[in-house]
Design goal:
The complex is a heterodimer of chains A (476) and B (310). Chain A has 476 residues and is an all-alpha fold. Helices cover 73% and strands 0% of the residues of chain A. The radius of gyration of chain A is 23 Å and the shape is globular. Chain B starts with a helix and ends in a 6-residue tail after the last helix. With 310 residues, chain B is α/β, with parallel strands linked by helices. In chain B, α5 packs across α12 and α6 packs parallel to α10. Chain B is elongated. In chain B, the strands form 2 sheets. Chain B has a 5-stranded parallel beta sheet. A two-stranded antiparallel ribbon of chain B has the order 6-7. Chain B is 42% helix and 9% strand. Classes of the chains: A mainly alpha (476), B alpha/beta (310). The interface between A and B is medium-sized, with 22 and 27 residues.
């Protein structure tokens, strides 16, 4: 079920009311059933798979604290998690080529064709994270299977995250929730805003970006430059739109998800950028790969950190998919962070002489450009296409026909307004707080104005929703 | 919770009332259209003896008014550039639903690509959206998964597309001017238009056919048979060697009771590059020549095989 569809929105809104009408002890079960039903709309086999996956991790988690089996069970759990991920997502990159070399006529892709592994990359990291937490004693094993199943399958974030932590999510299920109209209204506002970002902005940019990558050879150079500059915005509006929808529904159900975006384009460096963009994934790799690896090889000194940095980011890249492009994407992020770390003193000495405003904006622009450039490896279907993209850029010829399109101009205006709000929120927080408190104040004139704006936003969303485009992170 | 639910319900009611205002947009977007052919169809205004259906090659290469003047049979061109066989099937279905079935329907097929994946043709939803004020049209869009059918019943907005809001009067451009007879011949071409002759028989890849296109093609033929329409499948000239294997496949799919017309492959007019706008469309002078050939065939057909009541 597409989460931008009117069916999904309507069912979810009705579910929120049913949820609060139920007695507290039945609410988690209700949410779990809803999540299972949501997964079943994609495939019953996937639902059975998720149930089996949860059951295995649940039992392993339960038994890990037993010192007799701790190491064995933990290792088994991690191996099971990684193997199923490998079989469902990386067969074409790993197992099949080996079989081809050995002349073995076996095709493992049949497994992923049967299961349709939607959301597998997300829930696997949640499963692994849970086992590591329990193994390190950071949390006690979850005894209630229904709670654990909901942790894995919670429907607003099942498809594309954010990747939650068990010690953040599970304790919330034990708290009694009372109906809070303000919170639910805030959740609805987030959903509305998320839908606007996804349907009205990202879906329109999708035509330009995907169109160019589908036919790089025939795209003119000006268009490729436009794509290079637009693709970070496309990814951001698509993914943060989904995240807002997920957050909104979770909030309405009284559940708080871990933040995933914090105005990323306000970042002055790539190091800062990855603390603001897809936070749930980058922090997962930071906590469970970078920190653990640095700690494990701490005798190596700085070399351990550098090794852990590159390992974490290359794995981060590979997490997105099987291919050299994703590996290079991760490697480039590691390279940028390594450069920033190793030249920090020098850069501070040089740039501290510049006026604050100029320094801040230079940092933001360079960060944006670097990220935009590295995203060529994210969107390009293969490494050759990525290099063709770069090779065509310096030629500078063609016709920016997209600029003449009125819908595109309208989308650019929307982007400008939203980014302006982000700048105000970040750089002029006092002004933003005043706007926000005025916006939410409960006098009648304000309410009429607010409702009118909501009506217009819903109108735009419904009208633009005829261009259905899959969420980018859905594929992971 | 009750108070919140009432507030939400009140908002929903206000939004539903607000939604009904957009019936005006639906109305004006139909009015603003320059290409009225589909609206004529839905309104039952296309009651002709001969109908031409197809994509751009049919709209550029066959001049309906020339056929009408010569044969005395009323003729109308319903070919849409960029449309695929699923759209042609929709046009035929709409034609017989709201109008008198024609005596003859000519289906102009695209050499080789008619039933294959083709980036340049699609189901022209953009032609349907301006007409969403007609329930028949928005239901068709719903059936094609374009919109939730249930919501379209009570939400006008759910029938609209962003282009409906451009209610400025549309005008024809030189490349898409439609004559009164529905044809769109081209009498000019840009200087930098370049293309090469594709020679030699190309094997037709039956295995690559799209099932939905094959299904639409069969359905179109079935509609013609059910409504006693004499269907002529026309293979127009392309700047390439005619694909006999494609023709064979079309004949095989069509079954009995269908007529075929293949352009005169010996005619030198179709070998001369200047007579083409591009590799798949004739210039107007060559289109007149081709239509003339077609008229000769039709006259022969009417005289010998088809009985037309005037």
């Amino acid at each position: 079920m597409d989460i931008t569809s009117l069916y999904f929105i309507s069912f979810s809104v009705i579910s929120i009311f049913i949820y609060y009408l139920l007695r507290n002890e039945y609410r988690v079960l209700f949410l779990t059933l809803l999540s299972c039903a949501f997964i079943a709309t994609y495939s019953y086999i996937l639902l059975i798979y998720v149930l089996a996956y949860s059951l295995i991790n649940y039992f392993i988690g339960l038994k890990i604290p037993d010192p007799r089996f701790k190491k064995l069970l933990f290792t088994t759990g991690i191996v099971i998690n990684l193997t199923q991920l490998l079989l469902l997502k990386y067969v074409t990159f790993t197992i099949n080529p080996v079989f081809e070399l050995l002349n073995i006529d076996l095709d493992f892709t049949v497994i992923s064709r049967i299961i349709i592994p939607v959301g597998v990359s997300f829930f696997t990291l949640q499963g692994i994270g849970y086992l590591i937490n329990v193994n390190l004693g950071w949390e006690k094993p979850e005894k209630n299977f229904i709670h654990f199943l909901l942790y894995i399958s919670f429907f607003p974030r099942f498809l594309s995250g954010p990747i939650d932590r068990s010690n953040h999510f599970l304790p919330q299920l034990r708290i009694n929730k009372t109906f809070d109209g303000e919170e639910i209204a805030a959740g609805f506002r987030l959903i509305l805003f998320g839908l606007f970002k996804k349907v009205v902005i990202a879906n329109q940019l999708a035509h330009i970006v995907n169109g160019a990558y589908a036919n790089i050879d025939n795209s003119d150079e000006y268009s490729l430059w436009a794509v290079l500059l637009l693709q970070p915005l496309y990814l951001y509006f698509d993914f943060s739109g989904y995240t807002d929808i997920a957050f909104g529904f979770a909030r309405a159900f009284g559940i708080e998800l871990r933040p995933n975006f914090k105005r990323p384009f306000m970042s002055e460096s790539m190091t800062e950028f990855w603390k603001r963009f897809h936070i749930s994934l980058s922090s997962w790799f930071h906590d469970y790969v970078f920190i653990r690896t640095s700690y494990r090889y701490r005798k190596w000194g700085m070399k351990a950190s550098n090794f852990a940095l590159f390992l974490a980011w290359v794995l981060f890249g590979i997490w997105h998919g099987a291919g050299w492009t994703f590996m290079l994407l991760g490697f480039l992020q590691a390279l940028a962070i390594y450069y920033e770390f190793s030249t920090k003193k020098l850069r501070v000495r040089i740039f501290s002489k510049l006026p604050d405003f100029l320094r801040v904006w230079l940092g933001r622009i360079f960060t944006y450009l670097f990220y935009g450039t590295s995203l060529v490896f994210f969107f390009a279907p293969d490494i050759n296409s990525a290099f063709t993209f770069f090779a065509k850029l310096p030629l500078l010829s063609g016709d920016l026909s997209m600029v003449k399109d009125e819908i595109f101009q309208l989308v650019l205006i929307f982007i400008f307004i939203i980014l302006l709000f982000e700048i105000i929120k970040h750089d002029f927080s006092n002004i933003f707080n005043k706007i926000e408190s005025y916006w939410l104040s409960n006098n009648n004139i304000n309410r009429i104005f607010r409702w009118a704006v909501y009506c217009i936003l819903i109108t735009i969303i419904i009208v633009f929703n005829s261009d259905v485009q899959q969420f980018i992170y859905f594929q992971f | 919770m009750g108070k919140f639910a009432i507030k939400l319900l009140l908002f929903a009611v206000i939004f539903l009332i607000f939604d009904k205002l957009f019936i005006i947009v639906a109305h004006f977007s139909a009015e603003a259209e320059a290409n009225k052919r589909l609206e004529y169809l839905v309104n039952g205004e296309v009651n002709k003896d001969i109908i031409i259906i197809g994509s751009s090659s049919g709209s550029r290469d066959i001049i309906a008014s020339q056929i009408e003047e010569t044969t005395g049979l009323s003729t109308y061109n319903l070919c849409y550039p960029g449309s695929n066989v699923e759209f042609h099937e929709f046009i035929m279905r709409t034609l017989v639903k709201f109008n008198e079935p024609p005596e003859i329907a000519m289906l102009v097929v695209d050499d080789n690509t008619e039933l294959l994946h083709n980036e340049t043709t699609n189901f022209r939803k953009d032609r349907l959206y301006p007409l969403v004020k007609y329930p028949y049209i928005w239901r068709e869009l719903s059936q094609r998964d374009e919109r939730d059918k249930l919501f379209s019943h009570f939400l006008i907005l759910n029938r609209l597309n962003k282009y409906n809001f451009d209610i400025r009067k549309k005008r024809f451009t030189p490349i898409d001017t439609i004559q009164d007879c529905g044809s769109m011949p081209i009498s000019w071409k840009p200087e930098d238009m370049d293309f090469e002759y594709v020679s030699g028989e190309r094997p037709y890849p039956v295995g690559e056919e799209l099932p939905e296109k094959v299904e639409a093609y069969k359905k179109l033929i079935e509609t013609c048979k059910t409504n006693n329409i004499n269907l002529v499948v026309v293979f127009p000239p392309f700047y390439q060697t005619h694909s006999e294997s494609f023709e064979k496949r079309i004949r095989q799919l069509s079954g009995d009771g269908v007529y075929y017309y293949l352009y005169n492959t010996e005619n030198p007019v179709y070998r001369y590059k200047d007579n083409y706008f591009d590799e798949s469309h004739l210039m107007q002078n060559a289109a007149i020549e081709f239509t003339g050939e077609l008229i000769t065939y039709l006259n022969d057909l009417i005289e010998n095989e088809i009985k037309i009541d005037n």
